[in-house]
Design a protein that fits this description.
The chain has about 350 residues and is an alpha/beta fold. The chain is about 45% helix and about 15% strand.
Length: about 350
Amino acid sequence: MAGTKRVNLALQGGGSHGAFTWGVLDRLLEDGRLELEGISGTSAGAMNAAVLAQGLHEGGREGARQGLAEFWEEIGTYAPFSLVRTTPLDRLAGNWNLDRSPGAAIVEMAQRLASPALRNPLRLNALSTVLRNRLRVEAVRACTRVKLFITATNVESGEARVFRNAEISHDALLASACLPSLFEAVMIDGQPYWDGGYMGNPAIWPFIYNCDSRDVVLVQINPLTRVGVPKSLAEIDNRLNEITFNGALIGEMRAIAFAQKLIEDDGATGPSIDRLKRMLIHIVADEAAMLPLGAVSKFNVEPEFLKHLRDAGRKAADRWLAATFDDLGNKSSVDIRAAFL
């Protein structure tokens, strides 16, 4: 389509905060000026990526928008069964941070006292149920409109495994979202896997080797910087979570910045120079909306909260399109060195 630009999307994980990414994707699909070549996703980002691919295959952009909405709406139906919920006073005050809520304390105590196998011997998993209700694996595998890269972490080797379209399964997606404090490792091909965020949140390198587009649009839901020293256990756990799951991404961005400087300074010579690729980095984010949210709120699936995040994501994408669309294909809209070094 005339006036479109081809990009790759990098979708972070973050539990129910992935509803922010839903909002971003909804707005980008509605706008229609971006052609998606590749999508790399981890955890909630992996779910969004797979549902989007299914929707594109079966019903184009509008099919993808509808599929994402139905997926997150079904996630919201599990809110009445969760201990992590807001009170009427929280909702009246617009407070979505649940780090100090009674439910959070109960969940934290249970996680510290018993392993996932002991807490959940029947291996009940609401996310698995939603995936099997909403995701048709055969449609994802058949999708040729977008290349998928879904990351999980091999428990034994500590290495990332990236699943491509033809390898996508419900188990691969569950593996990408398998927090070891909550779930037993997911077995695939005889190997145990945990959350992909430990090794790539999300992985950027698949774009470099498998996609023609140089533009990478990171939908960021985990803040890189948080001013102040955390004091409470909840605050400490939250910051450790952010640092851990941003670590691999920061490493990859540093490598991209290094390669860019070599290209800019003519610092690379010889036959290997052709292997260097100047990547153009862009970020869709809303730190004002995400910074007040602690780690516990990532388990809040109340429909009102999910819609709040969706709306924040749509607004962030709208601002980003207005400010950045002309940069696509021409230059990075983010100073990688300043942001990640």
